[in-house]
Each structure stands twice: as C-alpha cells, then as structure tokens.
Amino acid sequence: MPSPRRAVFLDHQSLDLGDLDLSPLQQQFDQFELFAATAPEQVAERLQGAVAVVSNKVVLDAAVLAANPQLKLILVAATGTNNVDLAAARAQGITVCNCQGYGTPSVAQHTLALLLALATRLCDYHQAVAEGQWAKANQFCLLDFPIVELQGKTLGLLGHGELGGAVARLAEAFGMRVLSGLIPGRPQRADRLPLEALLPQVDALTLHCPLNEHTRHMLGARELALLKPGALVVNTARGGLINEQALADALRSGHLGGAATDVLSVEPPVNGNPLLEAGIPRLIITPHSAWGAVEARQRIVGQLSENAQAFFAGQPRRVVS
Questions:
Q1: Partner of 112 at 20 to 30 A CA spacing, among 65, 161, 175, 299?
Q2: What is the pTM of this model?
Q3: Which residue out of 131, 267, 277, 295 is catalytically annotated?
Q4: Are 85 and 63 in contact (CB under 8 A)?
C-alpha cells in the first residue's frame, strides 16, 4: 500500500534555486520526493503512489490524472492553473489549490524599476559609459539621452487589484497622478476609464491584468497610437496582452518614448519574437523574473504548506477546483 501522505514536486528547480527552506512543505507529508524537472513522458510514472503533487508549470492533463486514480490533491506553485486540466481534476474528485498574492512586493518594485529605467534612460547611459563615450565627452557629464521626471506625470493602470494597487502607491510616492482603466470584458465602473479615454491622458501605462479572450492583444496598433507621443509602456503581467509586432513598430517609429516587458507571448522564446529583433530602440526586456525575489518564492513555499495542511485537516483553502 502507498504511503497515505506521499507527495512529489515535479519541477522544484523552477521555484527553488537552493536558497529556500522547503521544510515547512516537506513536513506535511510522510514521503516527499523532489524532481528538479519532469518531462511530459515522465509525469504519469512519477505520480504513481502519490496522493499529492506539487507542480509549477508541469502539465497535468486528463490522461495523466486518469492514470493516477489515487491522486487527491494538486498544489500549484503559482497563481495560474492553465497547466492543470481543472475539469478532469474535478470529475476525478481531486482538489486543486494555487498560491495567491505571494509576489506583490517583488513584481511591484520590478514594475517601478522598469519605469524608472525608461524615464532615466538607465540602460542607454550604462551602455554609453561601457563603450567609452563618457571618457570622450568635452564636459563633466554626458546628457545624450533625454531624461524625464516621474513627478507630475500621469500613470495609467490596467488592473487595479492587489498588485495594481501596490504599483499605484509606489507611483504616488514619486508624485505621479494615477488613473485606472477599464479592463476589456469587465462591467463598467465609474472609477475606471475606457481605453479610448484613458490612453490619450497618460504619460506612462502599466499592465497588471490576466490574459483571456477579452484581453488578448488589448493593446494593438490602434491603442498604442492613442497614447501620447513619448509615452512609456511597462508590462509585468502577460505577454499576449500587447500585440508584440505593433509594439515593436511603435518603438521604431519613435511614437513611444520607451517600453519594458517582463513577459512575452511564448516563454521561453525558443522560436524568436518580434521584440527580440535587432535595432528596436528604447526597449527593455527581462526574462519573466519580476516575481522571483527570494522572499516571494519563500512565500510560495509557505502557502503550499498551508494549502496541504488545510486539505488534510478537511478545510482546504485557496481552492480553484
């Protein structure tokens, strides 16, 4: 007979870089097996005998679940659950729990870091110094790239939940005025401006909303053209929210003052991406790392532990299916 509390973590290196304390999670199970990564063809076999599985991005589809009727709990080491067939899990009586709100400070500070880097032309000045341009200057400073202050500027937020609210507070600390936009597909609200009204008013725009059938490519060529000349765009949400070719074109044309993204439509971008083409000016790309502060990742461990403990106590929490 399998252990009543055997669990496997299928892709722990996507969360733990050797800098986390996994003991709170391990203590919830009689047996806890860690796999650095798991290929699709290995999933069903590695789940054999386990009543619980932890997965960050490994796909748990209907066939895998059907091959493991003893499985009772899926712990997703993230907020998004698109890697789990929720309908199949529900039909099989498997509880699915996710993690929520763990990365708010990390993603919020990354958002402001990207916005500040664009406003101060940080990357351009760093590269200029590295290339020796400052050493060749005829005065004490180098001011080849226009710098703008955030104070007095207007920030547009698309997504004003916990994360958007944190970004708003940081922006206000820099003296920015904050306006919230209406997310496509959501009910009208007096305190949310439609995109057509929001975009022409803002000096910078940050995205903090989910990707779905309503929000995919919600910023295309038309919407980007509505932004003020010189406006800044920062996306730390999902890559598909912006039409990437349209964003590249808006940067090349000089209409936008700069853009920064922590996300792309396909990750990792093994087959390329319009934003990875050479010669796109005033663009910063980070590799979906905004969430990755050690404190944020340790919070995930804590929530996974809480979710497991609550499930075995008969009071599951953060249940998504």
A1: 299
A2: 0.90
A3: 267
A4: no
